[in-house]
Design a protein that fits this description.
The chain has 256 residues and is mainly alpha-helical. Helices cover 51% and strands 7% of the residues. It has a domain at 75-233.
């Protein structure tokens, strides 16, 4: 199935490739690190690092210094992707909830007839389910938008996987009033949704084999991948090693 694209660089050429996730190299040798610490270069590096005021800048011309980040994306972009992925996972998980707190738990629904009388029957709370699905659709679209600013191949590939899975469920989604737009975002028609068979909607959004379950998993992977990419913005991590593929000489030289 061909996936319609608007974020051309987002999905172009990625559908048939596996996530690269390639290693960016090992840290510099112990002796080289020790020499830099001993001669005071490490202290200068730390002062320069914590005095940086624009962590998002990728330009090497600012103040004549080269950004030591090896990430292909800015920290601002990655933070937004992580936030949107978390939001999508949360809204998907809300639909996946089972038991007494499930949105798909049948209950007594009272409706008012045209003549003013009330009728109570066992069924789904369509308004509550619509609200949950609407949040899911909004969060899905927000994540696609933020990933559209990304350059990381691993993030893009995880997003392609999510979009492909959505496309594979397009027929069922349309039965629930949800259509896939030309830019791969989702559109939810309230009237069509509330007129749909709620058992079909439940099969899409509730249960371990559902569309929502797979989307939640994809959101988790995008969040994780963005987090790993963000680590590349740190030149020195809590484990006492460099988290980028720069050698110590290149890192220190960029500040002097």
């Amino acid at each position: 199935m061909n996936i319609r694209t608007d974020y051309s660089f987002l999905f172009s050429g990625l559908n048939s490739t596996k996530s690269s996730g390639s290693s960016n190299g090992m840290a510099s040798s112990f002796l080289s690190d020790y020499a830099c610490i001993k001669n005071g270069s490490y202290l200068k590096l730390m002062k320069a690092y914590y005095n940086k005021t624009d962590a998002d800048s990728k330009s090497s011309s600012i103040s004549g210094k080269t950004d030591t980040s090896t990430s292909t994306d800015t920290t601002k972009t990655l933070a937004q992707i992580e936030a949107d992925a978390d939001a999508l996972k949360e809204s998907a998980d809300a639909l996946l909830t089972t038991g007494s707190k499930s949105l798909f738990q049948e209950k007594d629904i009272t409706t008012t007839n045209e003549d003013g009388t009330s009728t109570t029957a066992r069924g789904y709370d369509t308004d509550a389910i619509y609200k949950g699905v609407k949040a899911f659709v909004n969060d899905y679209n927000a994540l696609l938008k933020s990933v559209g600013d990304a350059n990381s191949k691993t993030i893009l590939q995880q997003t392609v996987n999510m979009v492909n899975h959505t496309a594979a469920n397009s027929r069922l989604l349309s039965k629930a009033g949800i259509t896939i737009q030309s830019d791969n975002t989702l559109s939810l028609d309230e009237t069509a949704f509330k007129a749909a068979d709620m058992s079909t909607v439940k099969s899409l959004f509730n249960g371990h084999a559902s569309y929502a379950y797979k989307t939640s998993a994809s959101a988790s992977m995008i969040d994780y991948t963005a987090g790993r990419e963000a680590e590349k913005a740190n030149t020195y991590n809590s484990y006492g090693s460099y988290s980028s593929n720069y050698s110590s000489g290149n890192i220190f030289a960029s500040y002097f």
